[in-house]
Design goal:
Type I restriction endonuclease subunit M; 4 strands; 35% helix; 4 helices; alpha+beta
């Protein structure tokens, strides 16, 4: 398989998003600050993870959304950004490793990056 990125027509990505989860999350972890904030506002972390895994990138700019769409196929890192009670929370799934799998997904605040 080539390492070149192959452009994917937008309608194909939308079809993919409407189905099953788009990629594996690997091990899911979150920082204490994120867990505290989500608990305080009655938001389950799995809700953000599900949005992320199904291609709802949240509040990323259009260029980052296109990069995420391409990363579904290329195996690159995927980043989503969600606003929860006036606080931005990032969800980052690492790129595919040598074993062909994504190893981890992390929920964190931007300042913790």
């Amino acid at each position: 398989m080539s390492d070149d990125k192959v452009p994917v027509p937008a309608q194909d990505v939308q079809t993919l998003k409407a189905r099953k989860p788009l990629f594996d999350l690997g091990m899911c972890v979150a920082t204490p600050a994120v867990l505290d904030h989500l608990a305080k506002h009655a938001v389950f972390p799995v809700a953000l993870l599900s949005r992320h895994q199904h291609g709802d990138w949240g509040n990323v700019d259009p260029a980052d959304a296109r990069s995420n769409d391409q990363a579904i196929l290329s195996g690159a890192r995927v980043i989503s950004s969600y606003l929860v009670a006036y606080v931005v929370i990032w969800v980052i799934t690492e790129a595919v490793g040598d074993d062909g799998r994504r190893s981890a997904t992390t929920l964190l605040l931007p300042e913790e990056y």
